[in-house]
Amino acid sequence: MSDGDAAEEIMCATYRALCSHGYADLTMQDIADESPKSKAALHYHYDSKHDLLCAFLDYLYERFVERTADIEAEDPLDELLALVDVVLQKSESEPEAFETALLEIRAQAPYEPGFRERLGRFETYLVEAFVEVLSRGRDDGTFVADVEPEETARFLVTVLTGASTERVTVGHSVESTRRMLRSYVRQHLLAESGALEA
Question: Which GO MF terms are attached to this record (predicted)?
Answer without folding.
Answer: DNA binding
